[in-house]
Amino acid sequence: MQKMKNGQAGFTLIELMIVVAIIGILAAVAIPAYQDYTIRAKVTEVITMAASAKTSISEYYTTMGEMPANANDAGVNTNADQSTYVSGIAYPAAGTAITTTVATVEYTLTNLGDPDTSTIVFEGTGSVTGVQWACDGGTVAAKYLPANCR
After folding, report:
1. CB-CB neighbours of 126 under 10 Å
2. CB 106 within 8 A of CB 94
3. Is the preceding peptide bond at 92 cis, omega within 30 degrees of 0?
4. pTM above 0.85?
5. How confident is the model over 81-110, as pLDDT tens digits?
6. Distance linking the first and last C-alpha atoms of the chain
7. What is the DSSP string of 89-148?
8. Before 68, cis peptide (omega within 30)?
């Protein structure tokens, strides 16, 4: 065994390579998880923003006994500038018709990441107990939606 000069000690090359490999593995797991988290946060912002439209439609139904015929009657703000993640708001949702008891609102989401553009559809069904809302329509991947929308 050789004596160390001046008490210097350090890491061997193999030890440094192991540390770099561990950091690489952690980064490979953390980056996709972070990307999913940021997309979920963007979708949640839009869902929170949609609450005012759902409230307006529900109030109209409770008062008038039928769903509103158009966005103006419904009190739905169709201005897409409400959020940087919304490129369009449609009442009724594309390809749907308003009935006296069912109405839909569609939000087109953009700047999400992967995929960059998706839609989320809220469907309100009116009854004597009020309006029940479901948000399981649209093209947003289920992993980005809150549990009550899956």
Report:
1. 21
2. yes
3. yes
4. no
5. 888 899 999 998 888 888 899 999 999 998
6. 66
7. EESSPTT----SSEEEEEEEE-S-SSSS-EEEEEEEEEETTEEEEEEEEESS-GGGS-GG
8. no
Q: CA 109 to CA 136: how far, in whole Å?
A: 15
Amino acid at 55: T
More confident residue, 58 or 5: 58
What pLDDT score does 148 carry?
81
* Distance (Å, whole) CA 132 – CA 124: 6
The structure tokens 């289920």 sit at 142
Residue 88 gets which letter from DSSP? E
| Spatial distance between the Cα atoms of 106 and 97, rounded to a whole number of angstroms | 12
Hey, what are 136's tokens? 């399981």
